[in-house]
Amino acid sequence: MIRLLADSTCDLSDEILAKYDIGVAPLIITIDNKSYEDRVDIQPDEFYGMLEALPEFPTTGMPSPATFMKLMEESVESGHDEILCICMSSGTSGSYQSAVLGKEYFEEAHPDSTVKIHIVDSRSMSHGSGWLLMKSAQMREAEATFEELVEFNETYKMKVKHFLSVDDLDHLIKSGRISNASAIIGKLLMVKPIMSMKNGKGAIVAKERGTRKVLKHYTDEFIKRCDKDITNFVIIGYTSDQKIAENLKLKIQAESDFKGEIYLMQMGVSVGTHVGLGAISMFFVEK
Fold first, then answer.
1. 65-77 vs 95-109: helix axis angle to the nearest 10?
2. pTM of the predicted structure, to 2 decimals
3. Which H or E run includes 71?
């Protein structure tokens, strides 16, 4: 039996995590010197409701190797003999390395174990790794082997297309994702930066004025780039404004010939710490 594991930046909904029995190692969020486990001790809506009033910028920390090791042990105890763990990009967090260490700790503690464990550096953020997890779960249901799942993830992880736009540039400045000068210019011109992943790190790939043009950019790029042979579903992410996500879904359905599922999912606390309120994202596999 194959078990899927992740860290909490996968941002998959509780319903999807439960449906596919995906184990999650939560990131740690520190707010006013108090630590919380992402989506365990603090939920997204609660966090976004307090975000603007916080006196200091929250910080995030990766799950410990012991946390990953415990998830692996629990997976074995529940009858799984193959474990695929898909983590956020090593270019933005130490979560992947923590999972690798967790695997090493597991193997040292259980030297006679025949359990297969593979850790994927997704080179993705948020629902990018979430997309790979959902696809892996669907493939598992279709009776794909563990080796086939590993091959798929290592082959297509660099093809998961990310788009992310934010409503407030301040959070990107504080998290070091954008320069202060660029932010000032952006605010003066009412420009919204559109980010994607390059070499495992976030990079600004376009700038648009206003939400309407951002959604047009997303839709145009989706129509041009989407690999329809692989992409049977799209994930649209949002932080505090679900209506924007709903508008993007309707626009894609109206203007493209895509017939697959389009999921709307809220970004978790760890990702929301860096992108702030009003963020909108989209994920699919490109050609």
1. 50
2. 0.93
3. helix 65-77
